[in-house]
Amino acid sequence: MTLLTITTSPTPTALVLEVAGDLDHTNAQQLRRAAREAALPAGRLLAVDLGKLSFCDSSGITALLAVRNHVVSVGARVVLVAVPVNTRRLLNMTGLDQVFDMRDAA
């Protein structure tokens, strides 16, 4: 098991949450909290960078959905960046690839 770390950094075009390690039932709440605590004004973009994500279970997928719902509720936008193959496969199988904007790079 790899420890989950979430780093927040502003860029000129977006607020970036870099998620690294394992995102699972033991720590999915950390991602939800990081999104809620981010100063995200209406119209701003939140880029969730998953390039260093090593594992994601159904709780992690649910947390990503909660982040999306929060961001949309404040009038902002969200994009998933560098989604690992296994996580992308889960999103595709559940139809969430139609819900999330996914990009290879920010």
UniProtKB/TrEMBL annotation:
Residues 4-106 form the STAS domain. It holds the Pfam family STAS. InterPro entries: Anti-sigma_ant, STAS_dom, STAS_dom_sf. CDD domains: STAS_anti-anti-sigma_factors. Belongs to the anti-sigma-factor antagonist family. This is Anti-sigma factor antagonist. The lineage of its organism: Bacteria, Bacillati, Actinomycetota, Actinomycetes, Kitasatosporales.
